[in-house]
Structures are given as structure tokens and as C-alpha cells.
Amino acid sequence: MSNEIKIRKGANIKLKGVAENLYFNPVSVSEIVLTPSDFPTLIPKLSVKVGDKVKAGTALFYNKENEQVLFTSPVSGVVSEIVRAEKRRIVNVKVKADGENLFESFTQADPSTLTKEVIIENLLKSGVWPFIRQRPFDVIANPSVQPKAIFISAFDSAPLAPDYGFVAHGQDEIFQYGLNALVKLTDGKVHLNISGDENAESVFANAKNVQINKFTGPHPAGNVGIQAHHISPVNKGEVIWVLKALDVLIIGKLFKEGKFDASRTIAVVGSKVKSPKYIKTIIGANISDIIKGNVEDGGRYISGNPLTGTQITENGNLCFYDYQLTVIPEGGNNQFFGWIAPGFDKFSLSRTFFSWLTPNKVYDLNTNKNGEERAFVMTGEYEKVFPMNIYPVYLVKAMITQDIDNMEKLGIYEVAPEDFALCEYGCTSKIETQKIVREALNLVKKECS
Amino acid sequence: MKALEKFMQKIKPKADGKFPLGHAVWDGMYTFLFVPGHTNNNGVHIRDGIDLKRTMIMVVLALVPALLFGIYNVGHQHFLAIGQVALGDHVCNMFMDKFIYGAIQVLPLVIVSYAVGLGVEFIFAAINKHAIQEGFLVSGMLIPLIMPVGVPLWMVAVATIFAVVIGKEVFGGTGMNVLNVALVTRAFLFFAYPTKMSGDQVWISLGGEKAIDGFSGATPLGKAVQGGVDAIPSLMDSIIGFIPGSIGETSVIAIGIGGLFLIFTGIGSLRIMLSMFVGGFLMGSVFNAVGGNPYLEVPAIHQLMLGGFAFGAVFMATDPVTASQTSTGKIIYGLFIGIMAMLIRVANPAYPEGVMLAILLGNVFAPLIDNIVVSANIKKRLKRLKTA
Fold first, then answer.
1. Minimal Cβ distance to A370: which of B47, B131, B173
2. Spatial distance between the Cα atoms of A176 and A107, rounded to a whole number of angstroms
3. A344, A340, A338, A308: which is closest to A324 by C-alpha?
4. So what's the pLDDT on residue A180?
5. Residues B103 and B298: beta-carbon distance below 8 Å
6. Contact, A254 vs A128, CB < 8 A?
7. By CA distance, what is A338's nearest residue in B?
8. In angstroms, rounded to a whole number, what is the distance separating the alpha carbons of residues B55 and B53?
9. Cβ distance A385 to A9 under 8 Å?
10. Predicted TM-score of the model (pTM)
């Protein structure tokens, strides 16, 4: 049985440079970087020193607040550098790959035959646990808490997002292994949310032991938080766990093969990429080998999509959760009388640009802010692209004033920064909404624990 | 463009230098000429093309039909009053003369309003060391359009200073004000200089000449409260707008063009406009049903076309800062203003123009309305917790 849920609010931003369903020739990964700031609120403690030999699956650092949660090396090699900032804060840990592909070994069995405790232990030890995140607060799940349900989004609706179906194609057995593990972790349901807009990939549509829900509608329909809101919203005191379907594959591989296989397929997209395609690489891989010869100059490199991704340098590394490398033109030019120009090349959620004449046009947007930051003036803009029964502007204002009581009342437990990405995109006053949301979540988490 | 940009960069005064006002003015000019090429550094990497300047300019564009019609109507009424054209003549008779005369009367009001208002904004920007906020771009155009043409320029200047300082800047500037700035200007004049804001002398610009015998320059509503209901122009005349009144308020057609533009671009709230008309119509219908005197019996639909009702609904009530912010709240807010406007207009002979007061009242109540709507949402969430 599958539920069908229609998301009505939102918007699809059509950008140039969607990946073709083809692969680049794989490039060998010489160095990977694990960055603690990919995990909000994490305080890392090192388990290794520079020069240590590690295998794939050897812990590099762990969570100070919850020492069971390990972050392990995606490759085998040598710890080459530990970069620190002021107060000896760890910026990142670099591992030089030795090409030997040695793996730590973990429990290898069909999870449906294992107990919950063994499964959690295996996930924690192997460093796969951080893929399971939770609402509230959009942080790594706490293994000692019982979630009321687990939600898996099997599609990404963000601009230029990879096609999960294409990436997961043919991995039915591994995916089912992953689901079997997750089913054991909750007394509630495991919801697999697939896209109803296109014929869903059989890997997802034929999954067993889970509740399948179909979502149709524009972005952010693929955001797992939005999906959870429409199925079983998070109330105060409740916890749900959320994952991307592609992360379930990593869990599946752990139980199928008994090792932490950190290889993943990412989409290399954006108007600055010469021929956008997919490539097989590893978590935290350095992008310089990937982009060599494939990308034009003058682009901004983003690990993730253009709405929620992280800006990295051309020598930077992919972030832990991202399945997408986006390269779009860097802005920075003043626009002469930009506020009155017809703007055929600008995509707007309002109809103040002539681009409304061409609803199917594909845009090549750059990173210009197109204005200056102002106080909130316009109303109804956030609501238009925020498909939750929450008043987003009131919530954001409570966040700005650090009014925890009101944040709680207005629904902070259900939201993640990514849910506000379109609000931020369309904001006339150019307010940095996602940053405000992230800081507020950190604050509430700190105050409530 | 490049040369201009270079020149502007060359003359840039220092922000913390001796003349902070100089920097504020420069910054205002520079960002007016060029949308600065700032890039996104936190959060989203791409941004919508729209910004506050563009939004405000769109509203100003929407006001242009009302302004042009207002200018022409000022000329039309002038020549009507001094007897150079008669009531039965074609309205396009002496077209250019009317237009030029109107422009000479109206444009100084526009210039004074902008010069004074922006001056105050620049000073506050310099004191507070922030950039010029665009809110006054719209207010500056609204102010002349809701004035009677006979208002002295110095009064407009005083009222504008009052409105920008007390109505807006003391609350923190654009986006923070409680009351609509343009309406504060009008309310200030209305209560401080009532003789210049009502009666039958101020709506027509005579230009020093003598009005012909029997010509009355009172607005239809002004006459109506004095019992002259017969003087109310026909429904068609009040829609087209060749009647005495504030400069921009008379033509429902010109306002409608602007209104459609605002709705289409998504800047003006259709909810507020529509619900305000519905509220006014309901209240008008109630008066019709009660009846008793001729004024109460003016058809409800006709009432909506008179005075500043349409202008208020399209341009004043929809000000996003002072209106309700929630979708449900906008409907309640619109209904409230519509009902109050009719009530004040018809029931209180001292204020023939109730729309201004009704909107100001609506502005005051808007946060309360929103609070009720948001509280309902909060209650729903709490209930979910209990039943879960």
C-alpha cells in the first residue's frame, strides 16, 4: 500500500547543467578529508595522530558528547595532516590513500537475523552511524533514543540534484539489507518516500518491510523533513530519524560485505561543467582530480546543491553528506540600474521580471545577491514556498530574537535549515535565513540538553 | 557605465569620515545606479533577482496611471471651475492645456514630498550608519496623490517630516513602522490644518481666478454628508473619475490598472484588496437595508467607487509592513477596514472620508489579528501533541 501526498507550495528552479545519465571515467582518489563542521554541533575528539596508518573503517575522531559515535576513515592510508584553527579547534583530518584498499572488518550478516543492539553496535563501530540523522535539530541521531519512526527520502528535488534512481540502479539486494537494518531500529514504521512524478526506480518501488509513500510536487517535496511533516509531524519530546536513500546503500553494504565501503556516485553538475555527468568517487574526496579538464574557469565550487551546499575551493573536498558537486558562475559584477532592468536572464519567484514569459526556460544563475540586506518588508513570500503548517516568518523572527519559548510553540522541532532554502532564495530582503535557522537549532539543542 | 562606475568610486566619501551624511548620500546614489555585485557567502548560492528597490519601483510604476489621471483631472476641474469648459463638453477638450496646468500644480507636491522625505531618510541613515532603506520611494509618491491640490507646499513638507520621523524612523525605519507613513502625513494635516484638508475650497485649483457662479468644489462625499446626496455623480462618473477629490483618488479605472499590475507581479495582496471591497460592500448593503435617509440609500456598489476607497484598498491597505502578515489575517484585516471605512464615512458627518481613518485603525489592529491567527496555529500544534 502506498500513500500519495501532493505538495502544493514550493518552486522548481530550472538551472543549466543537469547531469546526463552517463559516467565520467573514474579517477583515483589520492587524498580524502573528513571535516567535523559537516556535522552540526559536533565537538570532535581525535583518535589518531599524524603518521598513523589507518584502514577504511578505522576511527579518526569521535563525538565528545557521545563517545560511541565514531567517524571513520573512508580509505586506507596514512593520516597526513590534522588542520587546527584557533583554540586548537579541529578543522579537518586528512588521510593520504595508499591504494591498498584495506578494510576493517565488521559484522557481516542479514540484519533481519540480528538483534537491534548488534545492529546499532555495528553501525556505530564502522562509522556508518552518522548517516542517520534526527529531527529535531537536524543533527546525527542519538543511538540511545528510541525514534517514533524513520523517514527515508528516495529522491532529491533540489536544483541540479542527482537522480537517486540512476545511482541506486541494480543495487536492490544491498538496499533491502539496509532497510532491514533500519526496520529493527524503531518500533514505529520505516517510511520510504518516493517521487510520484516519474516512474520510480524499481530499487525503491519494490522495497519490502517498509511503508512506501509517494510524493508529488515541486521542491522541497524531496526534503525528508517536509515529507515527515505530512506523514507524522514531530511534536515536542518526540524524535524521528531521517536518511537519504543513497545512505541506506552504505548501511546495506556494511551488513552485506562486512566493511565500510565509502565509495559513492556523485553528480558533477552546473553550467560551468563542460558535460555534466556522474562520477564514482569516495566520501571526502579531493575535487581537483574530478574537475581537471571538465570545468571552465571562473566558477564557484559547491559541495551539494546551489541552495544548501557548501562553498569549497577548487582544491577542496566533498562534504560528508553530499552526492553532488555543483559548479556555477561566480558573480560580483555591479549591475547598472539592475533594479529596473527587464531581467530576461533572472529567475524570480515573483513576476517582476520578464522571465515569467518563459516558464520552461533553463537559467544560468550566478552567485550574485542581486540586492542588499534589508529588514523584513514583504509578506507571504516565505509561505509560498514553505509547505508546512508553520508560519515561517514568525518562526524566523523568534529565532532572530532567540526566543526559545516561542520557537518551540511555532514548530522549531520540525524544521531544518534546508527547508528554508527556497525562502532564502526568494527573500526580497536578502536575509540569511538558513544561517539563522542553524544557529537557532544549535541554541535550542544546547539549552534543552 | 564603466567610466561612471569609476567616477563614483573615486568620489566615494569615507563612511567614518567627517561627513557621514556625505557617505549616506553617496551610498544611496551609488546603489541606485548600480545594484552592488555582492555575492552570497552563507546559505544559498543563488538568489532571486528581486530586491527591495525593484519591489518599491514596481509599486511606483503601478501609481503612474493614477498620477497621470490626477494631473489631468486637476486641469480639468480648474477649467471647469473658471468656466472655460462646460460640464457637457467632451473631456478631451483643451487636452494639453489641462494637462500642463495640472502638471504645474501637482509636480511641485511630488518634488517637495520626495525631497523632504528622502532628506530625512538620508539624515537618519547617516546617524544610524546604515544604508538608505527604500521604503520612502513609495511613500513619496503616495503622499501627493492623497492630498487635495490646494494644500500649501510648506504644509506637505511639515507633514512629511512628521510622518517620516514619528511615523517611521522612531520605530527603526523601513519595515518596522506600525502605521502607513503616507497616511500619517494625511492624518497629520487633517487634524492640524482641517481647513486646508476639507470643505469645498481645497479640491479645486483656481489659480487665482474666480469660480463661476454656482460652482461647488466640494467632493461628492463632502456634499453628501451635508445632505446633498443628489450631487453625488453617477456611478459611471465616479468610476471614470472626472470629479473633485484628492489628486490620485478619483479614477477607479486608473487605480484599477495599478491594482491589476500589483496583483499580477505578486507585490500587492489580492486578499487584502478583495476582502476590503467585500467588507465595504457588506456594510454598504446593511446601510441600504436599514435605509431611512438618502445617504444611507446610496447603493453599496456606488459607495465603493467614491472617495478614497479604491485608492486605499489598492495602495494603502496593502502596504506589507503595516498590514496583517498571515494569509488568514489579511482577509480579516481587509474586511475590518472595509466595514470601518463605510461606518465612519456614513455614520460620522465630521469625517466624510472614512477610509484614511479606517486603514490607520486597521494598521493598529493588524498585529493583534496576526497574533490571533498565529495563536490558533500554536494551539493546533499543542493539540496534536496531546492526541498523539
1. B47
2. 17
3. A308
4. 92
5. no
6. yes
7. B35
8. 5
9. yes
10. 0.90
